[in-house]
Amino acid sequence: MKRYYIEIPHRDPPKAYATEDKHFIEWAYEQDGFLYWTADMKEMLDCCGERDEIEAEALEILDKHGTVTEIATGGQVAYYAPDEVPTELEAAQEYAGHDLHAFYVFDTADELREWARTYHGAHHHQWPAVQAAVEVLLEGEEEEGE
């Protein structure tokens, strides 16, 4: 699925872009600091060596559920049970927005258009530049559709 993204950094110019979910996930894996890995006990032991080398939180989930998903996003590592794990796309989106002033995701160009029409930014942070980036993206989308 194609989604629309707005990245508003603390200081650099904002970016507006559209990409397929598959490409967004691939991009995340190409970055330093992103990991999404589901493992059972054997795989975890192959990685860590000994049981006592496995993080306590991961070990607790492994013992209870048989698998654990480890997600690293921008220096933060979290462990999830199978019934609580975010999707790869959600984890990649979390990674993409971890060091920004704001990060927005829209499922359609119409959602983005409506947001741009009605939203005025948290404390108006870079709002004119955000509006310009959205306009350029949407104009490009319209040209592609012709």
Specify the number of helices. Answer: 6
Mean residue pLDDT: 92
According to DSSP, the number of beta strands is 6
Task: Describe the strand arrangement of the main beta sheet, using strand numbers.
Answer: 2-1-6
Helix content, binned percent: 40-55%
Identify the overall geometry: elongated
The unreliable regions are none
Number of domains: 1
Which radius of gyration do the C-alpha atoms yield? 19 Å
Strand percentage, roughly?
25-35%
Largest sheet: 3 strands, antiparallel
Order of helices and strands: EEHEHHEEHEHH
Please identify the structural class as seen in this structure: alpha+beta
What does this structure look like?
A hairpin with a 6-residue loop joins strand 1 and strand 2. The longest helix has 19 residues. The strands form 2 sheets. This protein has a 3-stranded antiparallel sheet, with helices on both faces. The chain has a 3-stranded antiparallel sheet with strand order 3-4-5. It is 46% helix and 25% strand. It has 146 residues and is α+β, with helices and mostly antiparallel strands. It has one domain. It is built from 6 helices and 6 strands; from the N terminus they run ββαβααββαβαα. The radius of gyration is 19 Å and the shape is elongated.
